[in-house]
Amino acid sequence: MKYLNKTVFSFAVAGMSLLSGKVSAQFLGGHRLKSGEDGPKGQFMMYGSLDYSKVTTPTNSSSTVSSAPLGVGYFINNNDLIGVNYAYTQNSVNHSVVYKQNEAGIWYSPSLMLGKYFVLIGQVDAHYVWGQQQATTADAMQNFNGFRLRAYPLIGILLGGGWALKFKFAELSMLQTKTKEEGWTKSYVAGLSGSTFGVGISKNFDFRKKSAKDDN
Length: 216
Known about the structure:
This protein is mainly β. The protein has helices at about 1-20, 210-215, and strands at about 45-50, 50-55, 60-75, 80-95, 95-115, 120-135, 140-160, 165-170, 170-180, 185-190, 200-205. It has an eight-stranded antiparallel β-barrel with strand order 1-3-4-5-6-7-8-11. The radius of gyration is 20 Å and the shape is elongated. It starts with a helix and ends with a helix.
């Protein structure tokens, strides 16, 4: 297990370094915007998505509500963002909540322009996790907490006016939580699958005051 932890961490660092290093300027024909070029440096970005699903059978019904995640970031230059985000998940069975999880933390996101309207994006999240789950030995809910480390790529489509669609197509993550009764539980996600695919939307905001020269 220690070897797997080191492998996950090393792979995440290597992947993000590939996107943020100088070699990334040649990756897939992409390029990083120079500091003198027109870009989003100094702007804020808000992003996220809300999801709901429900499965009904003749004897049972289950539903899931989630946000994946909702975040605010700041462009430290034309290519890199840092920010904070929050995610929530709730699972119900026969209209009774059996699991709910909150996670909040910081994130870093480098990017490469692929032409005029497409962007290749990487993101790394480091989250504190807390919530409640149904105990295995009783109907009562028990508290848990822990942490999540996650890295994933996205393809962005620039729509104009600061709007963009983001398509997540893979994930590498580690989630560790613990309860008083059961101790630590560990889970890992790595690769491409339906569970690692997601779609979100983002909007850039520029709160800086425009100069008279900009208004003309």
